[in-house]
Amino acid sequence: xxxxxxxxxxxxxxxxxxxxxxxxxxxxxxxxxxxxxxxxxxxxxxxxxxxxxxxxxxxxxxxxxxxxxxxxxxxxxxxxxxxxxxxxxxxxxxxxxxxxxxxxxxxxxxxxxxxxxxxxxxxxxxxxxxxxxxxxxxxxxxxxxxxxxxxxxxxxxxxxxxxxxxxxxxxxxxxxxxxxxxxxxxxxxxxxxxxxxxxxxxxxxxxxxxxxxxxxxxxxxxxxxxxxxxxxxxxxxxxxxxxxxxxxxxxxxxxxxxxxxxxxxxxxxxxxxxxxxxxxxxxxxxxxxxxxxxxxxxxxxxxxxxxxxxxxxxxxxxxxxxxxxxxxxxxxxxxxxxxxxxxxxxxxxxxxxxxxxxxxxxxxxxxxxxxxxxxxxxxxxxxxx
Amino acid sequence: xxxxxxxxxxxxxxxxxxxxxxxxxxxxxxxxxxxxxxxxxxxxxxxxxxxxxxxxxxxxxxxxxxxxxxxxxxxxxxxxxxxxxxxxxxxxxxxxxxxxxxxxxxxxxxxxxxxxxxxxxxxxxxxxxxxxxxxxxxxxxxxxxxxxxxxxxxxx
Lengths: 385, 156
Fold this sequence. Notes:
- The complex is a heterodimer of chains A (385) and B (156).
- Chain A has 2 domains: 199 residues, no CATH class; 124 residues, Beta Barrel (Barwin-like endoglucanases).
- Chain A is built from 14 helices and 13 strands.
- In chain A, the strands form 2 sheets. In chain A, strands 1, 2, 4, 5, 6, 7, 8, 9, 10, 12 and 13 form an 11-stranded mixed β-sheet that branches.
- In chain A, strand 1 and strand 2 form a beta hairpin.
- Chain A is elongated.
- Chain B has 156 residues and is an alpha+beta fold.
- Helices cover 29% and strands 19% of the residues of chain B.
- Chain B is built from 4 helices and 7 strands; from the N terminus they run H-E-E-H-E-E-E-E-H-E-H.
- The chains are: A alpha+beta (385), B alpha+beta (156).
- At the A-B interface, loops of A face helix 3 of B.
């Protein structure tokens, strides 16, 4: 029986909202927009962070570069021998890699010289001498399959034909859209890197407790080396992401301000008409609780609809369309890498955060003034005092 | 509803499997630290601090794991007769080394998971090098297993 009463109040609330279509639609629109913007930023940052984490997981414990006159140079392999002598270093791997600009696709790829492929081959086999393996996204974009040939321009300007031995996948779409892997010797030949040097050295340390100490020892032993630990790379990433999310937030501050004004407008009081309606309801025998319930339903209906709509729109915007509205801020990435899809990364905390900053204050702004209005005498309310 | 019940029992089973997991080493060789293993002395998960891990193989060939060499010494002092073999991880190489062949550096300045301050080395030169590098002074010696047992390990 009491359920029926609540349903009646809910029904009344819905009709009440329909009578004020214009005002409620405007609120819905602004609310949806705010949730959409906030959720877009949060989703975007979430997936970029996930992307970075995945990339970082592949990074070695310590990366050693050689700095010549303040610029990065090639590292002699004799450095690797000296680092290997340090106690606690389990392995030093000279890496050969570089960027390759593909004028046809207008994209920059990373060519990686590898002894053994650090990715899972989904089709074909790992590359042998004179062969390459490409990331899944590249293969799809350039429509190549194992057995096909791709032609790349080497450092002398010669066009070199490579047989595609395999296609690999990586959980990070950035990597699979970016990397062309070939044997180290082939990469040396392609880039013209002499055999006694490498681009950088990947140092692996057995005991994580000893990592900082070993990094310190390397920088003492090799004064012209730049020593980067994985923790330092993570800090750099975090700084970049912090800065970027700051820009994002600054760009939506207008929308947030509009929302704040809207909430304030609602909270600052009800219109005379709304007050009179509450007065009539009370005169008809509604209790203060009933009026509050009605107003709460109204707020919940509006807020939940906008919230869900905003989240869904943001999801489509970021993960289906690739966040075209936020792309300008992403310019650093879009010019550096070929287009890539963002990995869906949405946590419950993120959704809760958006809920807390949008739905909760709105509900408060709807309910508090009605509570004030519904406690007044119905006679006074109807007279419009 | 039926799915929920099934899920519940599956979860229960999974929980049991993890709790009752006993690792044995029939040939007394070192075994890797399993997920979810707890130190019998302090109750901490060992996998998280794998780089300081020790393990003792008991008479029943069951293996117990410790997250700090100090916990291993305390366990050893209580269950000496029941232990057949003890392995610790070498500080530098992270490989298992039998404690009879190992060298120990004891100093509170070494920050280990439980704060006992014990580092284990397979090579005496490494241990000496470590002692010098962290400038622990001549008061800190490189000890053998027997020497550490005789001096006793202080809980932090």
